[in-house]
């Protein structure tokens, strides 16, 4: 028999703007011993649901039961004292503090006493099976270890329900497996775990229970059992989508080389190998995928390609370039908050940021808002950015809808090249599919598309050629017909394959 719920949401409704409900009449139960996945499209209301449990938002109607007793969470402090912890999508750590200082800062006074010495913290971390050096400055830790500190924070604060908002978007495949090992242990020890994710394989492989929300309404909540990926997709989107259908490649004619990188070197950093003699070519009409485990030079490669960083040595040639040598390219950076958006300017301006001072959107230094608004409205509809209006700021949008703005802008650029770095990160299944289709269509129409992604499946689906990065080197160039295992082998430093660079 299943255990009694530890925490329940009872008939919870929430609106941020009157008349626009984000959650409607949600009743859900979270049990000890279970990993409970919450799925839904971008903007469905998943983060809002977690934030209500954690006391960051208050429900307009309905409430929270803890062991069957009504509780009110006016703030995260209330939730923490009720043994609820949360690991946010964007970590809440003080980057310049050490691990130990962060753990002490987050602990209530009674617990802080047990964390006086770094040695005590190291022992506690080991006991939880999450070893970490307490004296390390957080900013120097890779994201997977920063996440570990967040999990430790919750465990040290005696959380018995831990909420995770899209925890695996920052992890590579090996780290994802290790992460779910930790979650399974946390659940097996008698805690309840809630995970919001867009990755359905994770749910099928690791969760025991799954709930689906669509546009604020609960569609289903049931054990994972032997449900299939296609069942979940149908519930999430409300219709069937074939996520395995090949993306149509057109022609096969080889266009001219738009971008060529030869022997690029960039110095390594603590979290990345830098680049060591990396080379690649990108032709119009093709999609080239750069596969690799994060930290093997992807960031530096993007920065060099985007003209944001001068390599230490090597050459970059662009067929169409700005006066300063930067290639004309639509860009999707990895970090949408810091590099992709101006979070407090309206969606309309963000959509047209790259064109805002030019004709037809400005005349003699003055913005022509009617034109900006008409173009932005069109882009919003085309890209299915779900927002009440183009005049709100991206800060109030869900993560996936923020990403859609960055993508829409890059695709709208009148440039022969599109360079995208982790383009589907944070996007739901349908939106991810849409992005891949749009990128493929852009290549079919003659653009040169480069996609850097740690998601090997999407690279294989969309690319004509795949370049593998390992330890800063372009260690192999293969096609989408090469097996996943062979590509994986190259990604982890195995066998080296190099087809001739066509020039
Ligand atoms: N503070 C806020 N003010 C106004 N609207 C908000 C606020 N927070 C969330 N919303 C709106 O609530 C809706 C649900 O957002 P939420 O972040 O819960 O979605 P989500 O399901 O987590 O999406 P994603 O998968 O894209 O992260 C969105 O339309 C969003 O714009």
UniProtKB/TrEMBL annotation:
Occurrences of domain ABC transporter (ranges): 7-240, 259-496
UniProt-annotated stretches for the region Disordered: 484-503
Highest taxon of source: Bacteria
SMART domains the record matches: AAA
Keyword Nucleotide-binding: yes
InterPro entries with a match to the protein in the record: AAA+_ATPase (IPR003593), ABC_carbohydrate_import_ATPase (IPR050107), ABC_transporter-like_ATP-bd (IPR003439), ABC_transporter-like_CS (IPR017871), P-loop_NTPase (IPR027417)
CDD domains according to UniProt: ABC_Carb_Monos_I, ABC_Carb_Monos_II
Pfam families: ABC_tran
Signal peptide range: none
MF annotations from Gene Ontology: ATP binding; ATP hydrolysis activity
Record's keyword terms, sorted: ATP-binding, Nucleotide-binding
Gene3D superfamilies reported in the protein's UniProt record: P-loop containing nucleotide triphosphate hydrolases
SUPFAM superfamilies associated with the record: P-loop containing nucleoside triphosphate hydrolases
Family to which the UniProt record says this protein belongs: Belongs to the ABC transporter superfamily.
PANTHER family for this protein: CARBOHYDRATE TRANSPORT ATP-BINDING PROTEIN MG119-RELATED (PTHR43790), GUANOSINE IMPORT ATP-BINDING PROTEIN NUPO (PTHR43790:SF4)
Protein name: ABC transporter domain-containing protein
Native source organism of the sequence: Pararhizobium polonicum
